[in-house]
Protein 1
Amino acid sequence: MAAAGSAGESSVGSSRRAPGNNTPSYDRIVTVFAPNGRLYQVDYARNAVRLEGVTSVGVRGADSACVVGQRRARGTKDKLLDTASVSRLFPITERVGLLATGIAGDGRALAHEARNQTAEFRFKWGYEMPPDLLAQWIADRAQICTQYVSKRPSGVVAMVMGIDDEKETPQLFTCDPAGYFLGHKAASVGHKDREAVNFLEKKMKNNPSLSFPETIQMAISALQFALKEDLKATEIEVGVVRKDDPTFRLLTVAEIDEHLKAINQSKQN
């Protein structure tokens, strides 16, 4: 009986492992649940977002939305890198922008597919794809990657921002590798996201009605707090959209520098 029991246990154990490999299959294949109910490959995708070493912040104001991201990770050894060529912030449509935090290649591929999807939506329905529908499509795309062995979850979290044309209000969403999306008043993703979220929770506890400049400065201040150092205008990229001018655009270095000066002045006062 003992021998039979041992054989039974070994057969169960072998069924959980990939042929010719001692690693449990639930640790290698995204479609297999672990005994604790987790999909490890999705967890690894979330870890990949943090391991890139960059942090992103998004804030939704009364009539505008702003996202701020690092151009490169702190401590990057490549001193000859042209930081202007590094970008994780993509215009998707004229009124919607996307900030991809995580593996740069996955973010660029996601932005390319999102542009194709929004173009098809406009061709089919005759108007621009709303930010919430784009966020839902990105989440659906990520969830599909958890159903097929041939697909790998993207190591990227997308922040989608824009103006809802019907409600005429700013919108800010995050889309997770697990396949869900959430709307936010403010959010942070990446290496130091917890520190930035703590800052934003305190500053936005009373649900302040932030003006356009205050929205930008709140997002930059949260990123500086998380990184524990002052940032230069060339080290970050800022995307904005506002109700009065719903066109998504990136701030210039000079505009970012003006907001950094305003933040420093407020600290001194």
Note: The mean pLDDT is 88.
Protein 2
Amino acid sequence: MQLYHHPFSLDSQKVRLALEEKGIDYTSYHVNPITGKNMDSSFFRMNPSARLPVFQNGGHIIFNTIEIIMYIERIAMVSSGADGMTISSREVVEWMHKIQEWNPKYFTLSHVPAKYCLYISKFIRRVVIARMAESPDLAGAYHLKLKEAYQTEEKLKSPDAVKRSKEHLIRLLDEVETQLKETVYLAGEEFSLADVTFIPVLARLVLLDLGDDYISCRPKIAAYWNLVQQRPSYKKVIGKYFHGWRKHKTLIKTWCFVRIRSMLRKY
């Protein structure tokens, strides 16, 4: 089993948390979307959407995050002989889909200085054009990614797009806060795949230094956040990369790569 992912990718974090929680062994391949590695023809042929993560088990390839997590759960059940393990309840699945409906893209980019967003966007566009020249048979799919990059730039200029994303997030957090007044975890008294799907959302807010604005002001979520950070899966998947100096190391390493490649015009 192979997982193509990156620590920056929120959906990748969800899948990796599921793999760690279920104790599934897999081969890890880092594909950094900020440096355009998801546009390399070898990856692009496998997944023309170029989105992360991608899960491969033999000839079976899955791109949808929720489908990957549910597939991992089925693998875990088969591996354990289903002893003491049950499939996720309807409530868990509903929470997973509800959380997945929030797209963090515009919210995240709106909290990154515009000059950096534009610089990365231009770099990615040049990567796409370079890969298009290398693999003309994929030109149609690459053109779609180029169009998507321009559309993202335009939407970021629209206050309404960012406002809708923020309002959606607030509604989700308020609903979670209400739920956590009744239960320890998102779908009951036991940690579940619903929590696996939600934890990276909180981690993204902390990464953007927005913890005080969105987490601390909600006492139940704040207590929940402190609790889930103690799990070994969190420490391995997220804490390892984004706590303390490691956060700056991860971000600076990527930024330096992009700057050097841009200066050398090697895309």
Note: Residues 5 and 53 are 5 Å apart (CA to CA).
